[in-house]
Amino acid sequence: MIDIHSHVLFDMDDGAEDLATSIELCRDSYMNGCDSLVLTPHFFEYSYLEDFIEERDMRITLLQEALEKERIPLEVLPGAELFLTDRVFGADNLDELTINGTKYMLCEMSLNPFDTKNVIRWFDELIDRSYKPILAHPERYYVFHEDYELIDRVLKRGIIFQVNLDSLIGANGSLAQDMSVDMVRRGIAQIIASDAHDLDFRHTRLIEKLNELPDVITEADVERCLIEIPKKIITNQDI
Question: Nearest Cα to 233, choosing from 143, 138, 133?
Fold first, then answer.
């Protein structure tokens, strides 16, 4: 399996606090059938892009060295979770925020209510720059539950939807579960990921959570959303 959304990289955001935690999250990921894990720390501060990349890459190198020492053969790949605001219009080259140097870019919006008038413009800006946006956890956005037409408008732009495994098993509430299950079954959501942050609740133990999936989610759904499509993303293939 390939997990394209995680906050496993230490001391970057609200995810892993230290290297030891990162190592254990990677160990759990590998022991639960994951071959490749994309490290996607939150990116908010557009003015500090170079600093963010430098810190991220330094920590990735330290983590890779530690995994080799611990004999954990998990492939860890660079990425980021870009927070969409109007600042994207004046942002410098964002290439190094993409997943593994591909055209695919993981994005997020505010989970709180906000004025959605610029949402399509944000995505169009990224598309105009030749990026292929992936929207993280659409099932968790208040604005989507209030405005289904916005979902249709986003999908018409060719945006890829990634739902959280936690949502599918009900950990984010019934509304998020109902929406995420429906999106997977209808093929609207093309990726399932952990969005892992810690060792206890939002963890990387994929098999443990896959065993809790509703019966309507099939093995074919899991293979498509955790193997086939993610592999195309990390290798920069068209979907």
Answer: 133
